[in-house]
Amino acid sequence: MKQTAREALELTPSRTGRPRLDKSSRILARFYEPLFLLQALGQTRGVHTRRERDSNDVTETRRKFLENLCFVCDFAQGGESCTAIGLEERVDKYVFWLASNGKHPNIADFLKSALKFLCLTASHLAELEPDATEREFTQICADFAKIRINEQWKRMLQQILGQDDPIKLCYFAYDNRRSTMIAELKSLASSEERGLSLDGQRSSFYLVQHYIGRLAHHIRAPRELIQDSRNIEHILQTCTVEIVDLPGVQIPLRDTHTNLKGILNRMFREDNANEKEEVEEGLIYLDKVSGTFNKFVGCYKRSGVDADVHAEIKVLEHFHRSKLRFAGNDRFIACSKPACLCCELYFKHHPAYFVTPSSHKKVWPKWSPPKVKYGPILDDWAIQQRKILSKITEDLREQVINHVLQRSRNSHWHPDSRTGITDLQSMNHQAFSMESDYSELSELESDFNSLDGSESEMWSDSEDGGVSVSV
């Protein structure tokens, strides 16, 4: 007997249900239980992590180029247009394998035109005026991403900064990212957030600071693409663009086995009864103070809906299953946003040893592994995915157990994307100036660790998330 998402979570089974005989249903049910429980305990599971930099300058330049390509292709807020790219090297050419969370063929068209522009630029660099070329390409990228820029602009900065031209605002943000006012915003945000509750929204000062950084990246990314194109001209001269897409699974329905006792029995071995009892008591306590079980049950409202395979997982599996060769044998997949928790774990446990991406450490309950067939006899892909999901499930369960036993406070909320402004301690201070000089663009910056704020569902889904949501 199926249960609706509105029914409360049973602590103990009131009736004996039909065993989960179907292999696919059983594997997915066991995966989504701890995923939804972790989401109910708090969406943000830690601070941003960075991918490791490669010691080879050629490799690192190529990686940065791919990451910036992904950024300029990601044209909208939310996760629907989140873009991933893997670069295949063949004997006669290079192939940019492109995927997005949703179905957006316009991304492939834009990528082709962007690569053509960069190829022509790299081939005729000595004949071109650098600043004019950068401005032209920046405008092309901004026109494609105008939905995203307008959303970032209108959300926090239009009234504050008095700018009514989105691209000028991007230049303004870029040129003033070193201002002493950024340090002042950071200080004000820190002071304000000390008085906010864990369930409160991020400080408005922090959000202004964050959006200044994101708007500035609409200038930085095209500029870096122009600069790096000269170093990978051999790739740009013989390249094509191909699209990758993989279907996801349906989120399983709740059944009579979806009760607290059953979930805990699947999380613990029989010889670990004491710890299981502690976790049960802890979850019941957390439910009383924060409604954990209602949040858990609410995740099943999407039952029967096809979940999303995130872009980087699509590219990963395409390269692995097709046995494609990465450019420079660098098993790297670029993405326009840091990986969610499940994507990070999928990379970690995949047998092909891909480069582990940076991660925003958030739980996205509409996440899906690629769909495979679980027949009476499992094929190689089904066996591989079962092993990967089993390891991810164990990691998710361990995080649930640790959270409950340690009575952990919710991790502070942060946007999925990094702010992208260097810490002011390493900068030469300057004042805010509304008179931006478009031709004087500063050198490349690294990200800084942004302030930790509190969990905020109001902002978490709409701010550069891993899934499509309504704002």
UniProtKB/TrEMBL annotation:
Residues 454-464 have a biased composition (Acidic residues). The lineage of its organism: Eukaryota, Fungi, Dikarya, Ascomycota, Pezizomycotina. This is Uncharacterized protein. It comes from Talaromyces atroroseus. Residues 1-20, 443-471 are annotated as: Disordered. InterPro entries: OTT_1508_deam-like (IPR027796). PANTHER family: PTHR42037, PTHR42037:SF1.
